[in-house]
Amino acid sequence: MRNIPYSSVPDMLRKNAAKFQGKPALKYRKEGKYVSLSYEQFYEQALMTARGLQKLGVQEGDRIALLSESRAEWVIADMGILIIGAVNVPIYPTNTPEQVEHMLRHSGARIVFVSSLPQYSKLLNIRKSIPSVEVVVSFEHFPHERELPALTFQTLSAFDDPITRVERDRLEAGIDRIGHDHIMTLIYTSGTTGAPKGVMLTNRNILFDAWYGIKKVEALTGSEVVLSFLPLSHVFERTIGYYITIMNGALMAFADSVEKTAENMLEVKPTVMVSVPRLFEKIYSRIYENVGRMPTIKRKLFHWAVRVGKKYVEAKYVDSQTAPLLAFQYSLADRLVFTKLRERFGGRMKFFVSGGAPLDKNINLFFWSIGVPILEGYGLTETSPAVSLNNFRQVRFGSVGTLFDQTEIKVAHDGELLIRGPQLMAGYFKDPEATKEALKDGWFRSGDLGHVDNGFVYITGRKKEIIITAGGKNIAHRRIEYELQNGKYIAQAVVYGDRRPFLIALLVPNFEQLVVYAQARNLGRYDPDYLLRHESVRQLYSLTVDEVNSKLAPYETIKKFALLPRDFSIEGGELTLTQKLKRHIIYEKYKDMIDELYADTRR
Predict the structure, then answer these.
(1) What is the pLDDT of residues 228-242, one digit of tens each?
(2) What is the three-state SS of 13-30?
(3) What is the pLDDT of residues 493-507, one digit of tens each?
(4) Per-residue H/E/C for 472-523
(5) Are 396 and 177 in contact (CB under 8 A)?
(6) Which terminus of the chain, N or C, has fewer Cβ atoms within 10 Å?
(7) CA separation for the pair 273, 264 (Å, rounded)
(8) d(CA 388, CA 405)
(9) CB under 8 Å to 580, separation ≥6 — which residues?
(10) Beta strands 272-275 and 251-254, pairing class
């Protein structure tokens, strides 16, 4: 860490506020228009938030939760929390009240920042179960209840009341006491079974990953405009999209929403974005849909340009040699086709960084071909998050790049990737046994299967039974399967969605109960093939799935399902001798059915 000029994340903001002063740091929507905060203003408002938290009695090491969508107030509150040495506990705004309850109870959070009334209402629903919470701070104004006192962010921070010299000295003395090993955040991540575990990350972890992330990319400058649309509750956007941006003296702009990201690109004209594969899949599909409606000549020109582009990218970036004729063809393809495509990204996009889930190799190569490269990387919450990354000097499509400096990977006997480096977490909060299991001999057991070839890391599968959707959400699907099977009409369930945009389920009915249902409604015939096609039966299972979905976070819900006419069995090859599902066998056997469930919603 001797090369990193910051002792902590708030120290980084303090130094960059002095270094960049009037340079824009944050850009966000206010009353219909984009406005900016300079680095100096950002730091001042963070100090004011820290001052307000101290007046509420917050001490170093106290846990403060953030239950909010990504917005400028999120990062100001974050820095305010960190300035006084407290611990930020980010919570997804899409989490259910039950999930929020676990995180608040387990962390012992004293204060919760919320964005709006719907988030405050979640806390009201679980008030008796979160006794440690003393007060709520809201980014928006709304009425609150006596049993859960709330004040506005404006009231807490008193933004109209300038920081005095005495207050500044006291707060900055606190920053000076924060060291590299100080726990700065507690991030809850899903496991395969049981409750989520709280990952403890230090200033060292985050600073290392941000500093060496900048060095790994090489192409970042202080003039970047980074459009942020992913949730800051996820360590990927938080480190790569937020802390790296502030460390680099660049501008962080907030999208209005995920749905308006494409529109915001045209308005903000970003140069860099952090994303998950789902965005690229949508853009890719939309482009090809539009191409399909073009006249024949234009359609042929497009496909020729893409073929040339892929050859050019492979030759230049993988093989490091480009023939003059190919370079000329590419320049022509770029002028005739690719320049217009890049306008959809605002016209200034230098590159994307992709993580959180595997990116399709062909989609990645397509984006590089049109002049909007995607730098795909790999990491986990426990590694702050990045471990490896492709860049412009070292890229292999299908890989997740080469390792960060001072980072090591070795492959265990069963193919699991073991990781060691300064970005590795301090452990799991209040869970020494899980920490010991995950960090054997100083190596983190990733749960991912893979190999290293010529310095490039390749991910080939997952040892842990956990789904990572195309949107980067980690989902413990066995819990959802258990919920589905709790009802009397479902005997077996398999939830699928790895690398896909949403979850689907294959359901085996409890045919005894289904026949009883059919007889009560005089459906006529009771053989499985007939029943599974009957509209009344389809409606029954739709309601059953909806009931389970009501207990889940939005990203965990089952969007589509298929009913299977027979049980999974040992004889059929779908079960082991101990009655465990052979998921890969089930997937291969029902691959066409699974693909059909996704076929109508790929855009």
Answers:
(1) 999 999 999 999 999
(2) HHHHHHHHCCCEEEEEEE
(3) 999 998 889 999 999
(4) CCEECHHHHHHHHHHCCCEEEEEEECCCCCCEEEEEEECHHHHHHHHHHCCC
(5) no
(6) C
(7) 12
(8) 9
(9) none
(10) unpaired
Distance, in Å, from the CA atom of 427 to the CA atom of 181, rounded to the nearest integer, reads: 12
Quote the DSSP letter at residue 528.
Answer: H
Q: Which residues contact 57 (CB under 8 A, 6 or more apart)?
A: none
**Token duo for residue 353:** 């960084």
- CA 486 – CA 483 distance, rounded (Å): 5
Total residue length of the chain: 603
Tell me which residue of 118, 135, 116 sits closest to 127, measured CA to CA. Answer: 135
Residue type at 93?
A: P
Query: Which candidate, 82, 45, 77, 65, places its Cα nearest to that of 119?
Result: 65
Q: Is 173 exposed, middle or buried (0-12, 13-18, 19+ CB in 10 A)?
A: exposed
Instruction: Give CA 359 to chain center in angstroms.
Output: 14
Pairing relationship of beta strands 24-30 and 33-38 according to DSSP bridges? antiparallel
Q: How far is the C-alpha of 412 from the C-alpha of 259, rounded, in Å?
A: 41
pTM of the model: 0.83
- Measuring CA to CA, which residue among 478, 340, 459 is closest to residue 409? 459
Q: How many CB atoms lie within 10 A of CB 190?
A: 22
Half-sphere exposure of 299 (CA within 13 A, CB side): 9
Encoded tokens for 483: 């919920």
62, 137, 271, 579 from 151: Cα distances, Å: 19, 5, 37, 53
User: Would you state the structure tokens that stand for residue 12, as one six-digit string?
Assistant: 């980084």
